[in-house]
Amino acid sequence: MPYDIVTIPCLSDNYAYLLRDQDTQEVAVIDVPEAAPILKALEENDWTLSQIWLTHHHPDHIDGVADLLEEYAAKVFGAQADAHRLPPLDQALAEGDAFNLGNYEVQIIDVPGHTVGHIAFHVPEAKLVFTADSLMALGCGRLFEGTPAQMWESLQKLAALPDDTLICSGHEYTASNAKFALTIDPQNAVLISRSAAIDAARQKGEATVPSLLSLEMQTNPFLRPADPGIRANLGMPDATDTEVFTEIRARKDAF
Ligand code: ZN
Ligand code: FE
């Protein structure tokens, strides 16, 4: 099944995405930091918005929803757990729920940690997952509400998806994430070359997202608490993965 995906820079460092099923021409937007750049992309492509998917309640992911709804009669999808602090939802979702964008089934994965109600939208046939501020390129979201153990559990669910899944995350934080990753995983040759590619992309003003899960598995320190090299660098050879993850998250917060 063919689809189109468009990455739209919003605000200072956010990303929204447009996903379109070419067969039915239904279009979803994933997160709405602001309306203007999304309306512009829809108009340029001559697409009609049918769905709005919200990953979590933070203003930089929902603030443009009302303005989009003035232009398009789109249905709004978001977490049941956060229905009280999201824009009005047409469909309230929890782990294991599914709906369709055209011919594509969309599956909901609960990924608490950044916020307790954060969800991810997985589109298995398209090999896409929209993770916003849970799993990010070379990073993961800050723990505003959840515990490190919760975030580690969330990341493990995403890590279990097929290796060739494209991770569509919510911010352009990759260059600073790479600098941090190199402090605890400096011998990782794949990370070193990815970091150079990120710097080159940013110098050209290019987005560093989406990214492939297989590359995240090899380079994202938040997916690698079991790695012997990282453990040696942290002086935690015998700790649990959760303990190592917690230490990595704490070091990133202080970085
Ligand atoms: Zn957020
Ligand atoms: Fe955010």
Structure description:
A six-stranded mixed β-sheet has the order 1-2-3-4-5-6, with helices on one face. Strands 7-8-9-10-13-14 form a six-stranded mixed β-sheet. A two-stranded antiparallel sheet has the order 11-12. The mean pLDDT is 98. The protein is of the alpha/beta class. It has helices at 36-45, 59-62, 65-71, 148-159, 174-184, 189-203, 213-219, 228-234, 241-254, and strands at residues 3-10, 14-21, 27-30, 49-53, 75-79, 91-93, 98-101, 104-110, 119-123, 128-132, 135-136, 139-140, 166-169, 211-212. The protein has a single domain (3-254), classed as Ribonuclease Z/Hydroxyacylglutathione hydrolase-like (Metallo-beta-lactamase, Chain A), CATH 3.60.15. The radius of gyration is 18 Å and the shape is globular. The structure holds zinc ion and fe (iii) ion.
Question: Main traits of this protein?
Answer:
255 residues, alpha/beta, Metallo-beta-lactamase, Chain A, six-stranded mixed sheet, 14 strands, 34% helix, binds zinc ion, binds fe (iii) ion
At a glance:
This protein has 255 residues and is an alpha/beta fold. It is built from nine helices and 14 strands. 34% of the residues lie in helices and 25% in strands.
Poorly predicted runs of 5 or more residues: none
CATH superfamily, please? Ribonuclease Z/Hydroxyacylglutathione hydrolase-like
Taken from the alpha-carbon principal axes, the silhouette is: globular
Number of helices: 9
Q: What is the second-level CATH architecture?
A: 4-Layer Sandwich
Strand order of the largest sheet: 1-2-3-4-5-6
**What is the CA-based Rg, rounded?**
18 Å
The CATH topology comes to Metallo-beta-lactamase, Chain A
